[in-house]
C-alpha cells in the first residue's frame, strides 16, 4: 500500500508539473511519463490514432478520477469514464475495458498506461481502445470528482470541453406530458435558446420513473454518432425535481407576477448581463399560462423617434419583448429574466441555481415578435426606462400589463394626449391608477393624469431592490415599493438578492 501511495504521489506531482509548466521535460531533460487527458484528446483528427511514446512525446500514462457508475445501468456498456482530477481545465475520456469496467466506481483514482492503445471514436464518443485490466492501476478510492456547472448553451458551444465529464445543469425544463417516463431521449432547455437531450437507457433502474417538468440535473456528457451532445444521469438521485405542479383550474389573479428588482448597469459591458427579478403571487406553469415581459428604453437616439405609436409593442430600439412560455414558479418565490446567469457582469459569480425562466442573449438576438438586438436593454441614464409584464404572448398597443414600473429621468417622448393618445399603458399598481382618484377620469398611460411616479435611476453598478408588501388575497399593495440600491460585487450570491430583509414580500 505504501509503495502505491509513493508511486501515486510521484505521478501526481509529475502531472502537476507537466500541466502547470507545459514543459515536455524535467530539469534534467528527461521526458515525462505522464501526459494529461486534454493532450490525448487533441491527438484525434477524425481518424484512429495509435498511441505510443512518439505521438505522446515521451509519455505513456494518464491519471484521473473515475466518474462512471454502472450500478444503475445508465452508462455505455464496457466504458470507464475518467476525468482529470483538478481545475481549471477539466477534461474527460472513455476507457473501453469490457467486463472489467464493472470493477471501477466513482471516485477511484487511476493511472492508465495507454502505450499501445488506440484513440478512436465509438458511436460518436472519443474512447481509448485496446486496453487490458493490467494497464489500469487503482491508486485510491473514495475521492470526490469535481462537478462542473454549465448551461445548455455552454455545452452546445464547446461540446468537446464537457464530453465525458461530470456536469450539473440548473433549470432543466422538459416539454413532457404528466407521467412520462425517463426512458429514451428527452429534450430540455434551461431558459436559453438551445436544447439538449437527457438520455436514459431502457435498462436503467430509473427508466420508468416519472420525468419532472423542471429539475436540477447532473450526469455525464456523451456525444452521439450525429455529433449531438447528450446528458446521461448516472442515478435517479442526480435529478432533483424543482418544478411546481399547478392546478389548471385555479384562475389567474389580477397581478400573478410582480416586479421586484433589476440590474441595469452591471460592471463592465451591459451586453447580455442585465436582468430583471420578479416574484409570483400564485403558482404558475408558464407552459400552460404563458406571459410576456417587455422593456422600454427611451434614449434620445433610440429608434423609432418620437412618441411610441404602438405603445409597448413599438419595437426596434424602444421596446424589447421576452416570451415566458416554459418553466414553473411557486407562489412567493423569485424568478429571473435576462441574459447570462451572472450576478454582476462577466467576471462575477454564477447564479444558475436561481430560477431563470428566460436566459436570452438580447445583445445578439432580436426580441420575441419585436425589439432589435441591443447592448442596453435597461436604461441607466437619461430618459425613462420601464418594465412591464403581460398575460399571454401577444402584446399590442391596446395590451394592459399586470404590473409595470418606470425609472429614470423626466424627459423624452413618452406620452402624447392626442388624439390619438400615444404612450405606454399602465395598470392599477402601488404607483399608478387607471381612474383619476378625484374625477374618475380615465388615465390609462404613464404620464397621463396622476400617473407620473417614477423611480430614480439606480446607483452605478448597484442592484435596484424594489421593496414592498403585496397581499395576494386583496390583490393590492399594502406597502408601496421603494427603490433602494443594493451593493453587490463579483462574489455576491443569489442569497444577497433574495434574502435581504428589504426585499418585496407577500402578506
TrEMBL record:
Identify the residues that the record assigns to the DUF5689 domain, covering every copy: 34-234
Identify the domain of life.
Answer: Bacteria
Q: Which residue stretches, if any, does this entry annotate as coiled coil?
A: none
Q: Which is a Pfam family this sequence falls into? A: DUF5689
Record has Signal as a keyword: yes
Q: What is this protein called?
A: DUF5689 domain-containing protein
Give start-end of the signal peptide: 1-20
Which InterPro entries does the UniProt entry name for this protein? DUF5689 (IPR043744)
Has the keyword Signal been applied to this entry? yes
For this UniProt record, the keywords arranged alphabetically read as follows:
Signal
